[in-house]
Design a protein that fits this description.
Largest sheet: 8 strands, mixed
CATH topology of the largest domain: Neuraminidase
Strand order of the largest sheet: 17-16-15-14-18-19-20-21
CATH architecture of the largest domain: 6 Propeller
CATH superfamily of the largest domain: Kelch-type beta propeller
Number of helices: 5
Structural class: mainly beta
Helix content: under 10%
Number of domains: 2
CATH class of the largest domain: Mainly Beta
Strand content: 25-35%
Radius of gyration: 21 Å
Distance between the termini: 27 Å
Length: 429
């Protein structure tokens, strides 16, 4: 059951040097890029910490002389950054369920003090992390660490699909699958109503260390292993639409050719109507597979794609369906060229070395580095909204900036999703 919106913990930047009631931000307001809201570079990035909200001001009309439902129609074309800066009534409207949402960065977090997994969303306008209510977890709950494997984190596999965050696979302390059905977070849920819900049971045995991703708004799961290895489980797969009715069931996929996608947690990224995945995330010897959504069949991955898949990967429709991979050793963000079966370097930076997680959306690629202590954001768009990596005549270097993780937390997964709706008392300051 979701916690009341007024009871949320809010991660806010430190304000020791600020005037009373004045807010510091870790990022500037987003800017508009066509119909897509993209993240803007910050002027400063102090580490967020816990603060309380200022007192709510008396309610004011959206536009004097107009009823609010007509005022909303007048305000809808305005840039969200302008609305956030003008007044509290407009700010409340910006976070209301009836207003078109902007994009936010969502993170799965590990407590540095061993407090377990938590979830938060980074608001690029206010420059703060908002804690998500805890999801309904099974018993025993998923674990991110095992006492006998101190050097390796147990993956909690999450997918962003249809504007929702979906938990699909995890491990218990006994190294058994922790989830028998997906757990879904809906950012657009009205304040005070449940934000988390349980999805339908998987059509196969629960698993962990599978390939998981989103394909045309649907959750895609393939391969994996249960409490023990089973060849049938390791070759099975299914898709599910989290935006469908609660009674909607998983649709099975044709079996994988073999069970090699059961050795590690892997991303399944969708590009050009094909779902692509590799059996290992690291530089070790790996194999790839491609599922053609239109033909409904598995194919071999192009050799150039396999060779250049040297780290965590992501893809997003608003980034031209481009597959991005971050080479954690070189610190290079690369983009795949289907026509030439090769990878092109978008940017190479020391700041990207040690990349552990990556997500893409809103014209930005967000990379968790330094053991999850911060997120490096890479601007992969140009002034004309075309990716720089696709314009060989452009010599401009993509901008990079950083967002610190919430104090005492480490980022273990990242997603770009619509902003959370808020109760009026939590967005009026």
């Amino acid at each position: 059951m979701a916690a009341p919106a007024a009871a949320k913990r809010l991660y806010r930047p430190p304000s020791a040097a600020a005037e009373p009631n004045k807010r510091h931000r870790t990022a500037a307001a987003p800017v508009m890029n066509g119909d897509v809201v993209v993240f803007a570079a910050p002027s400063a990035a102090p580490a967020p910490q816990l603060e309380t909200e200022s007192q709510q001001q008396p309610e004011q009309p959206l536009l004097p002389g107009l009823p609010d439902h007509l005022a909303q129609l007048c305000l809808a074309p305005l840039p969200p950054r302008l609305m956030h800066a003008v007044c509290r009534p407009w700010r409340r409207l910006l976070y209301s369920p009836s207003f078109p949402p902007f994009l936010s960065l969502y993170a799965v977090l590990d407590d540095a003090d061993g407090g377990g997994v938590s979830f938060a969303a980074y608001d690029t306008f206010s420059g703060r992390w908002d804690a998500l209510p805890p999801p309904p977890m099974p018993s025993p709950p998923p674990k991110l660490w095992h006492p006998s494997f101190l050097s390796r984190r147990l993956p909690l596999q999450t997918v962003s699909a249809a504007g929702r965050l979906v938990l699909v696979a995890a491990s218990t302390q006994a190294l058994s699958p922790a989830l028998s059905r997906p757990v879904v977070f809906d950012p657009a849920a009205r304040p005070g109503s449940p934000r988390w819900r349980l999805g339908p049971r998987f059509p196969f045995a629960p698993r962990r260390w599978c390939a998981a991703g989103a394909a045309r708004g649907r959750v895609f799961v393939a391969g994996g292993v249960g409490a023990g290895y089973d060849a049938t489980d390791a070759r099975s797969g299914a898709v599910w639409d989290p935006a469908a009715s609660p009674s909607a069931a998983w649709e099975p996929l044709p079996p994988l050719r073999d069970g090699r996608f059961s050795r590690d947690a892997a991303e399944a990224v969708c590009s050009r109507g094909k779902v692509c995945m590799v059996s290992l995330r690291s530089r070790g010897a790996k194999e790839g597979a491609v599922f053609d959504l239109a033909a409904g069949r598995w194919e071999d991955m192009p050799p150039g794609m396999v060779a250049g898949w040297t780290g965590p990967s992501a893809a997003s429709p608003d980034c031209g369906d481009t597959i991005f991979v971050v080479d954690e050793e070189r610190g290079a963000l690369t983009a795949y060229d289907w026509a030439g079966d090769r990878w092109r370097t978008v940017v190479e930076s020391e700041r990207l070395k040690g990349a552990a997680e990556v997500t893409a959306g809103g014209g930005r690629v967000c990379v968790a580095v330094d053991g999850g202590q911060k997120v490096v954001v890479v601007d992969v768009t140009s002034a004309n909204s075309k990716p720089r990596y696709g314009n060989s005549s452009s010599s401009a270097t993509p901008r990079l900036w950083e967002v610190a993780a919430p104090a005492g937390k480490r980022v273990v997964a990242l997603h770009v999703l619509p902003r959370m709706t808020r109760a009026e008392e939590t967005c009026s300051s």
